[in-house]
Predict the 3D structure of the following.
Amino acid sequence: GDLVSVSRAGVPGFGRIRRIALGDFATMARAARAARAPFAVQSAYRGYTTQISTFWRWVSVMGYRRALLASARPGHSEHQLGTAVDLRTPGGAAPWAYADWGRTKAGAWLARNSWRYGWILSYPRSGSPGRSCYKYEPWHFRYVGRWLAAQIHASGLTPREWLWRSGAAGTWTEGGPVPTPNPTQSPTSTA
């Protein structure tokens, strides 16, 4: 219910992102334009049904095994969170049509600076696919907020590794959530 058009951030392209990410997205877009490295949105929020068709389209193009490294199965896509975008060069082709979109002016600027605005490169070359589960995607950025983006950037880890090592992925073990233990009563409490 809190999805807003990326155009509200002054960014060309289509799609919606969560309202919480909009301000930093707009600030990042202004900084990129000032650096003469503007970007546009290729893709943003995708619902479950859209992700089904997206995934199976890639399966038809490259086969199931290769598609697993290039497209998330429905229910596993960061795009379904409303906080991920695929970016491209304004007026340019889809970013995956380039030999390496990360070497374009926009792609290189974003790789160096997006974390300053709360956006991180989800699937960097250095960690893909072994440490990120997907092939290198220099166009795919996820909003995590400025503090967390700075932590992930400073760590040198992929976002997936950082979240795993920080315990964010440790809530579930062997397929089910760990139950909250029954609280024990304390004889006195202090403020």
